[in-house]
Amino acid sequence: MVLLQQYTMSKNIDKIEFRGRTVQSLLEKSFNQNLEVVYSIQNLFYTRKDFSRQQFKDFVSGSLSRHPGLQAVEHMIYVKGSERAKFEKRMRAEGFLNFTIKEFIAEGGVQPAAIRPEYYVINYVEPLEDNLAALGYDVSFTPPAKEALKSAQLNGVGVSPWMPLAQGDVGFVVYMSIQGGDNFAVGVFRLKKFIETSLKASEADGIDFVVEEVTEVPNPLRTYRYDSQDGVLTDFTDSGQMKQKFISTSLISFGQRSWRITHYPSASYRSIIHPALPYAAGFTVLLLMLTLTFFFSERDARVTAETAAKVREEFMTVASHELRTPLTPLKMEIFLVKELVQSGQASKEKITSLLENANKHLNHIVALIDDLLDVGRIGEEHYQYEFSHFKIDELIRNTAEKFDPVFKANNCSVIFTMQSEVNVYWDAQRIEQVIANCLSNSVKFSTRGIIEIKLRTEGSNVIFSVKDNGIGISPDFQKRMFNKFERGVSSRSYGGLGLGLYIVHEIIRSHGGSVTVDSLPGKGSEFIFQVPAHV
User: Fold this and answer.
1) Residue 442 maps to which CATH number?
2) Are 405 and 464 in the same domain?
3) What range defines the domain where residue 345 resides?
4) What is the pTM of this model?
5) pLDDT tens-digit map of 403-434
6) Mean of all residue pLDDT scores within the chain
């Protein structure tokens, strides 16, 4: 009897915990997908600064229709106090009569902004009709938004706490710095809309939850209840729902902000799962043990499947972002070529410049796809090697020469300390891939860096290395850096699928060699390869 009660309680707790993991996964996935729209705006203004309001609308309209969790996307600009009148005059000339820079007031709503030395103003907003109140809003005047803005200037991305929005209701805002921090791509999330649309397709299973922001001291503005049956988020007042046995709590981080989600069974569900089991006596001990064995096996299998699914989902999110990053400027470059041709302003120099940039972004996409294909071939053991005799010192110099434009653009200098006339029997194309990956990483993670390439022989082995003075690698990441999809730093800041080092490791391993790394955070990194000269 007691064992059956424990089994029933365990099963219901497991269901609530499973629901908690599901909700966490859905919210994180939705946030990342919506964030891609904001990243695309950031990339758009990296490509070119002078986009018209109509061009901005055309660019984001399709994305907004596919991402209902977003209340609005915006472009925010810095306006000096001395240039306020000029800016307001320009906006009125665009058709926004009586336009003025606005600020939020504590009682709710907005008012004309006071005279200040500087403003950070919403310049474009879409959909405009539903978010007209935000146009001209000075974000820097509101303390929570100002804090997130500073974070974006320092770190590239800042997330506000839950706060009243210019559009009304409570929500949060994501700011992404563009070219030094005077311009920002902005994503506005109405909390109710974001949570309800994120969980719309989830099963109504009688498990409700309370969500609160816990980055700072919780207050009534930051506590809401989600009804799984109705799929609705409402204000929360504790009426005893939380004082029960079946509760699961989890934390979700969105940028610098943390949310606590507490799941518990609804009143109707609690009536079903009450632990008293008056008819349990009819079960035999044998049947009980078989049931328990099945239950725990089922749970372990589900947890394993969930973990695998989460890894796949995280990879798809990263892959989606990495592929979309070069696609955004590529899309704009094609759009601009079309506009120039149609307007009759298509000079040879402008068209050539745009097409060269488009080709660069296309090559980036091809390289990402090649990495994905390589990983698939390695996993299926279909990776083909073509071994031949060649001089590795010549291959290293030739590969480095291809990076000359990249070295110059990033103020990097290269030092060679190499033994000459080193003959090997390797796959030249794959080894070039190894060298190129190391050089690419050295440039990516160094600013005004020095890259040193060494080569020597030791007995029947060849030892070559690539050393930089970049940001270095933490000891923790060094333990897993050669695994698939591992990234030591934010992919948002540095890009990458987390596949390069995995591919490098597999190529060297297939040549009978080894890879080691010597690195400390802030002190640079040295990748050292030891491979038999003749495989």
Assistant:
1) 3.30.565.10
2) yes
3) 283-381
4) 0.61
5) 887 788 778 889 999 999 999 999 998 898 89
6) 78
